[in-house]
Amino acid sequence: MDYSPELGGIIYQVASMARRAGGISFAGGYPDPALFDTEGLAAAFNQVFRDSFRVALQYGEREGHPPLRARLAAFSSTPSRTVAAEEVIIANGGQQGIETAVRVLTRRGDTVFMDSPVFPTALQAFHLAGLNGISVAKDRDGLIPESLEALLKVHAPKLIYVVPSYSNPDGSVLALERRRRLLELAVHYRFHVLEDDPYSRLWFDTPAPPSLLALSGEVPGARDWLIHVSSLSKLVAPGLRVGWMIPPAHLRQEFVWTKLATDIHSALPTQHAVENYWAAGRMEAHLPKIRATYAGRARAMHAALAEHLADRLDFAAPQGGMFMWCRVRAGGDARDLMDAARREGVYFVPGVAFYPRDADRATFRLSFATTPEDGIAEGIRRLSRVLAG
Ligand SMILES: Cc1ncc(COP(=O)(O)O)c(C=O)c1O
After folding, report:
1. Which CATH code fits 5-29+284-388?
2. What is the per-residue pLDDT across 280-330, written as a single tens digit (0 to 9) for each?
3. Is 0.90 surpassed by the pTM of this model?
4. 126 alpha carbon to ligand 1 midpoint, in Å?
5. Fewest C-beta in 10 Å: which of 51, 131, 271, 272?
6. Nearest protein Cα to ligand 1, atom 14
7. 243 lines ligand 1 (CB under 6 A)
8. Does an H or E element contain 11, and which?
9. Domain residue ranges of the chain, discontinuous segments joined by +
């Protein structure tokens, strides 16, 4: 892979630069802190301090707090795939799910497929594990099954990593038929699919297609090849570090042992608080507000880009999630644009951070999640001046 931690680290660098300088940030995939339900979460933590603090301060079950596992199982269940509480392993964010899957399923030198552009912290996990990363071609409907099949004739990947709904960084959505085909190919060619699903609940006008987890109940054999990972980072708050993984039954024990070697179990006071928060009905009450706010910001960003930059950039209207993916038609390296924009107080992440190899350097990612609509309009105006200049 051409990937290096320095390249992937651009995201965190630019995001913290934007925070320090107080500019207009389209950089990090950070939820807007103004949208954190601090009142609901404070009540939930106070309830822990009052009712279960001694229990929560002790070691707990390795797989996580049982009531929260049951709740996450119900949240992940669909008519075609009912998830039992025992299937859910609570993790320290979705990232730990990715890392655990890599440890369980791969050895140094193995091949991992991914649709790219791709989430760089997943790339970081593949890089540290010494994996050979290969991109599968994609379009707005996600990875292209014919390209995947052509690669499968040449390589034998242990794993394919996909973010099927509102992908980070490009906002793409894997089409329903392609989801089914991916699972069929996994069964046929015997490779695991790592579904990373932190964004599917952040849809705008219509819900995302069923997850691979849901479809694994319909495609014969698919349950044995699918690892589903998800997270509350974008739905409640990332600082809580609550994610979860649902591996196939025959790998569950190995997932638990592998996580055990890292951290014994995820922090219990937080899990108790999240369970209280959910039990109080705050999760379901709050989610529509986040969706509506991001939908408004996405529309504002798309409208501003269409007004000021339609002739210079390629971009598509997001259907959910937190990101827009842009490409400068004239080419070049978006890192130069990033430097120029920074001088105007606008921050974003250049595309080079999001590829295992052969990066399209003319691309960049804009996050619409963190900045209110008036700031978005102003930021895009400044960006258009930079691009014109
Ligand atoms: C696609 C994707 N996967 C995983 C993560 C990590 O999330 P968490 O905070 O749950 O570890 C992110 C965070 O930005 C993400 O965009």
Report:
1. 3.90.1150.10
2. 999 999 999 999 999 999 999 999 999 999 999 999 999 999 999 999 999
3. yes
4. 15
5. 51
6. 29
7. yes
8. helix 10-21
9. 5-29+284-388, 53-280
